[in-house]
Design brief:
Layout: E1 4-8, H1 15-28, E2 33-36, E3 39-42, E4 46-47, E5 53-54, H2 56-64, E6 76-80, E7 85-90, E8 93-99, H3 100-105, H4 111-124, E9 127-131, H5 149-155, E10 158-164, H6 170-180, H7 183-186, E11 189-197, H8 205-214, E12 219-224, H9 235-239, E13 250-255, E14 260-261, H10 267-270, E15 275-280, H11 283-287, E16 291-294, E17 296-297, H12 300-309, H13 313-317, E18 323-326, H14 328-332, E19 334-338, E20 349-351, E21 356-375, E22 378-389, E23 394-397, E24 400-403, H15 412-422, H16 431-449, H17 452-459
Parallel strand pairs: 1-9, 1-10, 2-9, 3-6, 10-11, 11-12, 13-15, 13-16, 16-18, 18-24, 19-21
Antiparallel strand pairs: 4-5, 6-7, 7-8, 14-17, 19-20, 21-22, 23-24
Length: 460
């Protein structure tokens, strides 16, 4: 069976959600399939089942189809820390801080890692669904490409082009990308998926004829616009997600740190009809919330300084303020932060917020763990990504729940107990059931709109 590459005609055309959906659909149809992306660029990451750091979409897809996530599914991750700096993650481990442009230029040294990962996955799975990145035919970048042309040529994958209708250049994008593909690869293009269509798809019948008759390409489907609203890997995508607050009885404010990380922590709150989730950046907004969350951070010291400069110290250290602090937010609450190796700052010692009477030490090594933790009296499935050396995994005292572990709100019992302490009328819901329902609905939406049988036939 052939593997499958999903190319977008440009950024944000929907290839991530299509790659996820096709992975899920093929799995449901009985194929032994795995998600893959050679190189990802993101501000966020998760921990795989093999204890490595990897991109959220591939981790999410693996979980959805019930297989163990692995760094092999995302061998290279550029974890962006600033416009010029990135933490280069290779096979799930940090290789150090790098200039981001040097990582894009020096891709030859990354190809062996990508090849090794794909080959090993191919021995275990009959079909790899490989998500591309950006524009696959950007002429100045094609020779250095890792996720598009390289994968398709090296592993002879079949190709689907995904295009959206939002930027108004659908036809030129499809035709341009197809014609600029290397000639041999054009023969492997199964067809085109038109995503994010806002109107009645019958209105695009003429568009289908143009693509098929003038361009000579098969249209596999026109998909009415529908967001998955799970597996978020950017704060912007979560902020753009609509929330139904008509039945909300509790207001939760996540402090929108400049370097906020691991936003998937808040998916269970975004989906909760009884919760109004706000991302806040000033004291007035904070005063309107029943619960504050101090989230994870990619740059703890910088975000700590931002909190103090913006007047958050008093409210975050008040014993009357109900607060949940996660990972970097937990670290900020300590009395002191010691950075002997200048991992995050030019200072050896930084004064923390002081709500927790202990110190944190930043080590050189990034700690990545995933498993079942005993937290706040519950068994909670979660994960860790941090450089901090700390005494306690969690701290629970008056109005404060703080932990280094991500994923605590996924636990129904913990979440329900916490919110009932704020409002006894809170009913709660099962997040795992909700998640499965949304995934099934999204996959069904794609399956109804795309000729999956054609894709199956081409892959065999």
């Amino acid at each position: 069976m052939r593997s499958l590459s999903i190319f977008g005609t440009s950024n944000d055309e929907g290839k991530s959600s299509i790659a996820f959906a096709l992975t899920y659909i093929l799995h449901k149809r009985g194929y032994n399939v795995a998600p893959f992306k050679a190189q990802s660029t993101s501000k966020n990451s998760q921990v795989s089942d093999d204890g490595a750091e990897m991109a959220i979409p591939q981790c999410f897809a693996a979980e959805a189809i019930g297989i163990k996530s692995s760094f092999l599914m995302n061998p290279v991750l550029l974890k962006v820390e600033s416009p010029t700096k990135t933490d280069l993650i290779i096979h799930g481990k940090s290789s150090g801080k790098k200039d981001i442009w040097s990582c894009y230029k020096d891709t030859q040294m990354l190809k062996p890692f990508v090849k090794d990962a794909f080959v090993k996955l191919s021995k275990k799975y009959e079909c790899i669904v490989a998500e591309g990145a950006g524009n696959p035919v950007e002429q100045s970048f094609m020779k250095r490409d890792l996720s598009n042309i390289y994968i398709a040529q090296e592993f002879k994958t079949k190709i689907i082009l995904v295009t959206g209708v939002e930027d108004g250049s659908l036809f030129s994008s499809i035709y341009g990308v197809y014609k600029l593909l290397p000639k041999k690869l054009r023969q492997d293009v199964i067809g085109v998926i038109v995503d994010k269509f806002q109107n009645d798809i019958a209105e695009f019948d003429e568009g289908v004829q143009i693509i098929e008759q003038l361009f000579g390409m098969r249209v596999l489907g026109v998909i009415p616009h529908k967001e998955l609203n799970l597996g978020f890997d950017t704060i912007e995508s979560m902020l753009a997600s609509p929330q139904n607050t008509k039945e909300s009885i509790i207001t939760v404010g996540v402090i929108k740190l400049p370097n906020i990380s691991n936003i998937t922590d808040f998916e269970p709150l975004l989906a909760d009809k009884e919760i109004e989730l706000r991302f806040i950046n000033n004291l007035h907004e904070a005063s309107l919330c029943d619960l504050l969350i101090l989230p994870g951070s990619k740059m703890v010291v910088d975000d700590l300084e931002w909190l103090i400069e913006n007047g958050f110290k008093n409210i975050l250290t008040s014993k009357e303020q109900k607060l949940v602090a996660i990972s970097g937010g937990y670290e900020m609450l300590h009395e002191q932060i010691l950075d002997p190796n200048n991992v995050e700052s030019a200072y050896k010692k930084i004064q923390g917020l002081g709500r927790i009477n202990a110190e944190v030490i930043f080590g050189k090594k990034t700690i990545t763990k995933k498993g079942l933790y005993s937290l706040f009296g519950y068994k909670i499935q979660g994960y860790e990504i941090h450089n901090a050396i700390i005494k306690e995994l969690f701290v629970k005292k008056r109005n404060l729940y703080a932990t280094i572990v991500h994923g605590i709100f996924d636990n129904n019992r913990f979440r329900t107990k916490l919110f009932r302490s704020i409002n006894p009328n809170y009913k709660g819901y099962d997040f795992a059931e909700y998640k499965q329902k949304i995934i099934d609905e999204f996959a069904s939406h794609i399956e109804k709109s795309v000729t999956i049988e054609t894709i199956e036939k081409e892959l065999k």
